[in-house]
From TrEMBL:
The chain crosses the membrane at residues 302-323. This is Peptidoglycan-binding (PGRP) domain of peptidoglycan hydrolases-containing protein. It comes from the Bacteria. The lineage of its organism: Bacteria, Pseudomonadati, Pseudomonadota, Alphaproteobacteria, Rhodobacterales. Keywords: Hydrolase, Membrane, Transmembrane, Transmembrane helix. Residues 203-251 form the Peptidoglycan binding-like domain. GO terms for molecular function: hydrolase activity. Signal peptide: none annotated. InterPro entries: Muramidase, Peptidoglycan-bd-like, PGBD-like_sf, PGBDSf. Pfam families: Muramidase (PF11860), PG_binding_1 (PF01471).
């Protein structure tokens, strides 16, 4: 008996595959793992090696819905038991295999078959067969879908609400955003930063404004938006004006980085030169005093005192002259 289309080699994901993909798309490993956990239920194949699948009869072409006497939307489809859903899939597959596969979500990423072209396959059947053979194909398709749907920015910025809306639709944004945030926290050991955008208010906006050197009023208005976009552009980030994980990381790194010691200005350098000159003069005085060692006590005292006074006077005059020259330069 021929195996169903959703049965293949079921090759597991290679070690380090998630880390490699995260690096390629520029997101945190923990963020990608969170998406896999929530959107793929953390698994690429069922325990029996079959490909996870969910048939959605309301997604069938109208002609086929009429043939199977299907009337109703996603609410009716959601109420189907697993047995009834599988039986209906088998019935439609006999009529039109491509239509049946196109109206089903497949694999860990639960990508609908009608998105096969979007993720690089010529047909829904080709996508299903690739998914059934290899978990890597599923992960690659997941990334392709996120890229085509414009969700990589939300993933990189850990904007879970935007990601959930784009990946799961508008129906349960808060639920999926919460699941993604919780999964990220488990994998990263910390919470995602607060995502800020135009119109937001509060302490996080105040922190943002201070990091940008703005007047901190806690209101994300047009001026803050312009400053954020300018900063993002200067840092090579997408200048969308939304402050997500990557923008926060850049800002906080810049604030925490130790500032290099300021270079001495011209006046400081002149003072240093004057100090060195005074030191050299003092050394010269010491040498001259050594020459008096062979003289008598009285002569030695007189000569050493005279020399010492002269040297110190010269040194002081030099220092004062240099400082005056610096102040009037």
């Amino acid at each position: 008996m021929r195996s169903p289309i959703y049965v293949g080699n079921a090759n597991p994901l290679p070690a380090g595959a998630v880390e490699t993909v995260a690096r390629e798309i520029g997101c945190e490993v923990a963020a990608l793992k969170a998406v896999i956990e929530v959107e793929a239920s953390g698994r690429w194949f069922n325990r029996d090696g079959t490909l996870p699948r969910r048939f959605e009869p309301h997604k069938l072409p109208a002609a086929i819905r009429e043939r199977i006497r299907w009337v109703g939307g996603w609410e009716k489809a959601a109420a189907l038991s697993t047995t009834a859903r599988e039986a209906l899939f088998a019935e439609v597959f006999k009529m039109d295999p491509e239509a049946a596969c196109a109206a089903t979500s497949w694999g860990g990423p639960q990508i609908m078959g009608f998105n096969a072209g979007t993720v690089g396959y010529p047909s829904a059947i080709a996508m299903v067969q690739a998914f059934a053979d290899d978990a890597q194909a599923q992960l690659d398709a997941m990334v392709s879908f996120m890229r085509a749907s414009g969700l990589l920015g939300a993933l990189r910025g850990q904007d879970w609400s935007a990601f959930a809306r784009g990946y799961n639709g508008p129906g349960q944004v808060d639920r999926y955003a919460g699941l993604l945030a919780s999964a990220y926290r488990r994998h990263a050991g910390q919470s995602s930063p607060t995502v800020l955008r135009l119109g937001d208010r509060g302490p996080s906006v105040t922190e943002l404004q201070r990091a940008l050197g703005l007047e901190a009023d806690g209101v994300f208005g047009p001026d803050t938006l312009a400053a954020v976009r300018a900063y993002q552009e200067a840092e090579g980030l997408p200048a969308d004006g939304i402050v997500g994980a990557r923008t926060w990381t850049q800002l906080r790194t810049a604030v925490e980085k130790p500032k290099p010691a300021a270079a001495p200005d011209a006046f400081d350098r002149r003072v240093e030169q004057a100090q060195k000159a005074a030191g050299a003069a003092g050394a010269g005085a010491a040498a001259l005093r050594g020459l008096t060692d062979g003289l008598g006590d009285t002569a030695q005292t007189v000569l050493a005192g005279a020399v010492g006074v002269a040297v110190v006077a010269l040194a002081v005059a030099f220092v004062i002259g240099r400082l005056r020259a610096g102040r009037t330069a």
